[in-house]
Structures are given as structure tokens and as C-alpha cells.
Amino acid sequence: MSDLMNKMVQERKAGRTAGVPSYCTANDIVIEALIRQAKELDVDILIEATANQVNQFGGYTGMQPKDFRDFIYEIADRAGYPHDRIVLGGDHLGPLTWVNEPEESAMEKAVTLVKLFVEAGFKKIHLDTSMRVADDPTDAPLTDETVARRGARLYQACEDSYQELLKKNPEEKRPVFIIGSEVPIPGGAQQEEDSISVTKPEAVEKTLAEYKKQFAGLSDPDAFKNVIAIVVQPGVEFGDDEVFPYNRANAGKLCEKIRSFDGIYMEGHSTDYQPPQCLKEMVEDGVAILKVGPALTFALRDGLFALSEIESRLVPEGEQVKFPELMEKLMLDDPSKWAKYYRGSEQEIALKRKYSLSDRCRYYFASPEIRDAIDRLIRNVDQCQIPTGLLMQYMPLQYKKVRDGKLQKEARALLMDFVMDAADDYNFAVGYI
Q1: CA within 20 to 30 Å of 377's CA: 23, 111, 173, 300, which one?
Q2: Cβ 53 vs Cβ 95: under 8 Å
Q3: Taken in order 38, 43, 39, 90, is the CA torsion positive or negative?
Q4: Which region holds residue 137: left if phi is over 0, alpha if psi is between -120 and 50, else beta?
Q5: What is the DSSP letter of 358?
Q6: What is the mean pLDDT of the chain?
Q7: Closest residue by Cα to residue 6 from 102, 87, 81, 109
Q8: DSSP per position, 182-225
């Protein structure tokens, strides 16, 4: 089992800059691309699943934690990448999926959720109890005490599951934990904003103090030492058509406050689409975990649209998949995954369905229709010889790699390179390249 997270902590404790990209996705093509890239770079990899993707009821992927683990390992086997170089993470683990239920039933389900993640071998656990449940007051924010009390309950459930694992394997490594209530919802902002407020230093201090207090009452009085990071808002976010880049001056007081807590670092969510230099500065300033998700599937969609343009020039009309049109039909037939998130005129919403940075179309990629369409699109293009000029037109970055002998001119390899190109910003930020 990879010791990626603890190595990062030890590097930072020694005064060296270190960070870890956190890839939060359940798409098989994206995951294969990331694993193949990690193999090429000879680095370990952190792959995470959110509570709405994967849970005891299947989530929107239809997978429980053990299923997701096996899914990742099967892809790794195809790529010839060792399982012990993979760290699996659980993101937003808490009552997120059951906020319409009262606290006791929502938290009972959350307890089951975190136990299943730990039992399946996930070693990075984000305890997220920042959301209101049905019987919480709606006229005031949740108190730090409530958030931390619920978080401590989930930590104890994780510890109980870990102790069971130890009985089977005395060498089993303990998970590390992420806490924090200042958490962007999975997938980025739902509404347009003029600016992003950075977490106040005093809010971090209060949150950590309350968590330490609540953890002190657990079966292990030293439990808090297993918390390595807190989720904060360092001033980065994205919406449908905008990206808020990191400004280290605005985050200066927050970063200074975090440095006063030994062994606690920052986890940044919604770092998608950030300029690579901004990502690098975030790592230097203490945002040691860079979480990215929609930008990866957006890159895949970009590649699929480009491949579809190539198909339209090479394949007879009646044999074309016409991937963008098929995706649009599926999204219109079932608007539940995007309708409440996209606002504007009919034309603006139509553009957002295809090109929004929040990438709600990714929720349709697991459908049998889309999976079959991608397979047919890949076959269609591979049956043709892509002319150099056509590759230059629609895949200019990939063309250069093909020209230089660094990339095969095969449809699946071309698609995966779109994802690898997006991930390279994170590899640069943490010093892998």
C-alpha cells in the first residue's frame, strides 16, 4: 500500500515543498489515462470517489466502495500499474446524500458509509459534516460544535473498522483524515459570483479547536494526530463560464495561520482550470492536496467532440456516431442532472449543456448509450487513416506528440492524451514534471 500521503506530510515537516494531486473521478477512460501517466512518471497516484458517486446504495455510478476499488484495480492491471502505488480516497463522506432526513437517520447512513470505505481499503478519508440535515435550524449556520461532533462520530466509526482490519492484517496502514466545513459542493459553484471569499484565519482556528475538543473524547485520545489537513477556501473556484484564479496575496493571512498548526495542511477543492503557476503557488503556500474532477472529464469531452469532428470528415453519414448530438438527446431526455444548475436563455443553456466548465454532461457518461457510442466512435476513427492536416486542425497538441513519435495515432490514445494534458498542470504544480 502506497505511503504517498504520509511521505508528503514528512516532506513538509522537513521544510520542503510537497503536494499531492487528488483525482476525483469515476470515468474509466479518465482513470486509465491518469494511471498510465503515473506509470510513465514513476509516481504514486491518489484517486478519490465522492459520496454521491459511490455509497452503500450504489451512488450514481452504481458502485459500493469495494466495487470502486476493484474497478480501479482492474484498470491498473490493464495498464500494468501496481495496486500498491494507488491511494484510494473518499471525498465528502458524511450525510451529504441524506440531507433530507433527520440527523439520526442521516448520520446512521453516514456511519455505514465511512465504515464501508475503510473496510474496502480507502486510506484518505474526508469527513464532511458541513451540510444541514432535515432537523437542523434553517435560520442560522451550523455551529462548529455540531459539525465537529458529527465528524468525531464518523471518525470513531472509521477507527472501529480499521481495528477490524488490523485483526486480519497487523501490517494494515491507518487511514489519514481530512476535516473542514468550508467545502465547495462537489462539482464546483452552482451560481455565478463576483468574487470568492477566502477562509478567515479565525474560522480555521475555531474549527480546529472544536475538532480537537470533540476528538479528545474518543476511544483514542490521540485521534486528532491522524488528521493531516483541513479543507479551506483559498480563493479558487469555477462556474459555468468563469474561473477564479488563486491570488496568494489574498490568501496570505490564511496560509500564515495554517503554518502555526504543526502537521496540519490545507486541502483545496475546485482547483479545476487553475493556471499551472497558480497551482504551483498554492502548493508552495501550504495547499498540499489539490483536488480536481470536472476539468478531467471536460478534457475527455473535448477530445470526444474533436474525435467526432474527425469522424464526420472520414466516415459515411449513415455510419457516424454523431456523439455530440447523441449526448444532447440523452441530456434532454433526462434533464434531472443539469436543469437546476444551468440558468439563462434557451441558447445559453444549450451551450452550457455541452461546454459548461461544471461539466454536468459527465453524469451521463456511465450510461450504456454513451459507453456504446464512445466504443463505436473509437472503432470508426481507427478504421480510417487520419490525415495529418485533419489531426492538426482538431487535435493540435496531440498532433505534435504524434509527429514527434511520443503518441500513437489511435483514437483511444488520442482521447487519453486530452486528459493527460489537463493533469500535467497538477504534475507540474507538485514537481513531478
Answers
A1: 23
A2: no
A3: negative
A4: beta
A5: T
A6: 95
A7: 87
A8: --PPTTS-SS--S--PPPPHHHHHHHHHHHHHHHTTSSSTTGGG
**For residue 284, what is its C-alpha cell?**
508552495
- Pair 400, 414: CB distance under 8 Å: no
> pLDDT tens across 100-129, in order?
999 999 999 999 999 999 999 999 999 999
For residues 429 and 21, is the Cβ–Cβ distance under 8 A?
A: yes
Contact 267, 289 (CB under 8 A): yes
Check whether 341 has a pLDDT greater than 60.
yes
Of all helices (H) and strands (E), which one includes residue 40?
Answer: helix 28-41
- Cell numbers that stand for 26 in this block: 469515476
Residue 67 exposure: Cα atoms within 13 Å on the Cβ side: 13
Rounded Cα distance between 275 and 247, Å, is 11
Q: Domains in the chain, please, with CATH?
A: 4-292 (3.20.20.70), 297-416 (1.10.400.20)
CA quadruple 279, 281, 282, 283: dihedral positive or negative? positive
Distance CA 192, CA 27 (A): 27
329's CB contacts (< 8 A; 6+ apart) are: none
Q: Which of 231, 187, 233, 189 is nearest to 53 (CA)?
A: 187
344 sits in which H/E element: none
By the 8 A CB rule, do 53 and 92 touch? Answer: no
CA 328 to chain centre: 24
User: Is residue 361 within 8 Å of 341, Cβ to Cβ?
Assistant: no
Query: What residues have CB less than 8 Å from 386, skipping those under 6 apart?
Result: 310, 314, 409
d(CA 130, CA 123): 21
Provide mean pLDDT across the span 188-213: 80
Q: What is the pLDDT of residues 28-45, one digit of tens each?
A: 999 999 999 999 999 999
Alpha carbon distance 287, 234 (integer Å) = 8
Q: Is the pLDDT of residue 394 over 70?
A: yes
